Amino acid sequence: MNNTLLEVDGVSVTFDGFRAINNLSIQIAEPELRAIIGPNGAGKTTFMDIITGKTRPDEGKVIWGERNISLLKMSESQIAQQGIGRKFQKPTVFEAQTVRENLAMALKNKRGPFDVLFFRSNPSIEGEIVELAEEIGLQDALDTPSGILSHGQKQWLEIGMLLAQDPRLLLVDEPAAGMTQAEREQTTEILVRAAQTRAVVVVEHDMEFVRRLNCKVTVLHEGSVLAEGSLDHVTANQTVIDVYLGR
Amino acid sequence: MRKTFISQNPSVLWFLAALGLFTLIVTILSEGFGLGIVSTSFIKTLGKTLCLCLIAIAMDVVWGYCGILSLGHFAFFGLGGYAIGMWLMYARTETIVVESLAGNIIPPTEQEVIDAIGTQIFGVVGSSEFPLIWAFADSLVLQLLMVVLVPGLLALVFGWLAFRSRVTGVYLSILTQAMTLALALYLFQNDSGLRGNNGLSGLQNIPGFEATPQATISIVFFWASAFALCAGYLFFAWIVSGKLGSVLRAIRDNEARVRFLGYHVESYKLFVFTITAVVSGIAGALYYPQAGIINPAEIAPIASIYLAVWVAIGGRGRLYGAVIGAAFVSLLSSWFTGGGAPDIPLGFYTIQWTDWWLVLLGVSFVAVTLFFPQGIGGLFDKLVRKQP
C-alpha cells in the first residue's frame, strides 16, 4: 500500500512482566475507516496510548506520514500537532467551560502560549465553530457549560473537538458506550462521514455498532493481531470465535 | 459581533471603580493631603494591603486558574523587596556618610566613601566589604530592573526544571515550599550578603526626599500601590479572559487531555509561573518601603501558605475573590494581632486574640473549604446572579 498513513511494526510493551502488546503490526491507510475489536485486556487502549505518545514501547517502530517520521521520540503535544487526534473512553471535555470554548481550544490554530495569549477570534473562526457544532448537533448549546450536557452530547462534543483539530488520523475509543439507539446511529454517521477524508480508527466492544460501521475489522488478542478483514470474515474465523465471540 | 474586553468583563470595571473610589476617599481622609482622619500608619497598612492584594491575584492566576498550588510566591515577593531595599539602603547611607565626612579638611576619596558606606551597612554582621550582589545597588534603574529580573529568572529556572520533569500536584507544592525555605535559610546567614537576620531596614526613608514628611510619602506609596493593583488586575483579567485563560483552566481540570489537543502544557505552566513571579516581585518592591524593614522571616514558607489561605477564603478562580480574601484576612489579622480586638474574659480563662487569632483563621479556612468551596467571591457571585 502506498497510501499508508500509519505503520505500527513489531511493537511490544511490558508492564511489570505482563506483555500488554506483543509484536503488534498494523497499517492504517488514508482515508480509511477501521474498527479494532477484542476482549478485555487485548491491548486496544495500550495500542492507542503508544500511538499518541502516552506509553513508550519496549521495541518496535511507529512510522507516520509520507516522510516516514518515527513517532516514538515525540511528546504527546507534538504527536497531536502532527495530526493525530484521540477520543477517550470516558468523555473528557472541559466541563467548567462552554461548548464554544471547548471547540475553540481544539480548533487548528497555533498552539504556543504567546500565540494563544494574543489570539483574537474573528468571524471566520466563529463560523467554523458554528459549523462544527451543527455537525455534532450542538448548535443550540454553544454557550452551555459542557458539564451539564448529557452523556451522549459530551461524547459528541469530544468527537467535535477531534474534528476541530482537523487530524489526519482519528483514534476513537468506544464512542458508542452509554448511548441510546438514536445517538448511536448519529455517531455512526459522524464517523463514517469523517472517514471519507481521513483515517479513523474505532475501538469498540459492541458488535452491532461495528457492523453498522461496515468497514475492515482488526481483532486483537493478547496484544497481537488475531485476524483482519471484513466483519463477516473475522467472525467466521474459528480462533476468533473461541477467544472472543464464544464466551 | 466582537465585543471589547471590558464589555465582556463587567466585573473588571466594577473593580476598578471601587478601587478608584477607595483611593479617593482614603486620600481625602489622610493626614498628608486632607482631613487627617486616617493616621499615617494606617495609610501604610492600607498601602501594604493593596500590595498583598496584588500578589494574591497573581496567586489566583497560578493556582485558581492554572491549578499550580505554589507555596513559594512569597519568595518572589521578598526578592522584589530585597532588590529595591538594597538601593534604598545604599543611597540613604551614602547621603549620611557624605554629610558626615563633609566636615573633613581633606575631602574623602571615592573609595573612602564606599568603605564608609560598607562599614555602616555591614557592620552589624561584622563585615565592611560589599558583596558582589550589591554591584548595582547605587543605581535605582538597575535595581528596579532587578525587581523584575531576579524573581523572573528564579521562577523561570525553577519552573523549567520542575515542569519538564512533570512534577505536579502536592509534590510541586512541596518543591516550591522547599525553594522558599532554602532561600529564607540562606538569607538568614550573616555572610549571605544581605545582612542575615537583620535584613534591610530604614526603607521608609526615601533618598532625595529627606525633607518630605512620612505623611506625604505614605500617601504617594498608597497611590503607587493602588495603581499597581489596578494595572495588575487589568493585565491578569486580560490574560484569563481570552483563549489563554481557557487553556489554563483546561490544564487545571485535565492536563493530559490538553496535551492530546496539541498544547505543550509545560510551556503554559512556565509562562504563568514566571509572569506571576514577576508581578509578585513588583508587589514586594512596593510593599517593603511601606513596611520599612525586610528580613528573611518574611519569606518563610508560612507566608506563602497564608497567601494560599487568603485566595481560598476569597474564592479561587475569580480575581476579585483573591482581592477580597487578601484584604479581608490581612486587615482582620492586623486588627486581631495588633491588640485591636478586645479580649474575651471567660472567668476561668481569658481569650487573648493575639494568641487565638491563628486558631480562628485555621477554623475559618477549614469551614470555607468544607462549606463554601467557592469562597467569599462565590457568595458574591450568587448575589449578583440572582438579579435578572
From TrEMBL, chain A:
Keywords of this entry: ATP-binding, Nucleotide-binding, Transport
GO MF, one annotated term: ATP binding
Alphabetical list of Gene3D superfamilies matching this protein: P-loop containing nucleotide triphosphate hydrolases
GO CC terms, sorted: plasma membrane
Residue span(s) of domain ABC transporter: 6-247
Keyword field contains Oxidoreductase: no
Name of the protein this chain belongs to: Urea transport system ATP-binding protein
Origin species: Rubricella aquisinus
ATP-binding as UniProt keyword: yes
One Pfam family from the record: ABC_tran
UniProtKB/TrEMBL annotation, chain B:
Keyword Transcription: no
Keywords assigned by UniProt, alphabetized: Cell membrane, Membrane, Transmembrane, Transmembrane helix
Domain of life: Bacteria
Protein name per the record: Urea transport system permease protein
Organism lineage string: Bacteria, Pseudomonadati, Pseudomonadota, Alphaproteobacteria, Rhodobacterales
Membrane-spanning intervals of the chain: 12-38, 50-79, 140-163, 170-188, 217-240, 267-287, 293-312, 319-336, 356-380
Molecular function as annotated in GO: branched-chain amino acid transmembrane transporter activity
InterPro entries per UniProt: ABC_transp_permease, ABC_transptr_urea_perm_UrtC, LivM-like
Organism: Rubricella aquisinus
Pfam families in alphabetical order: BPD_transp_2 (PF02653)
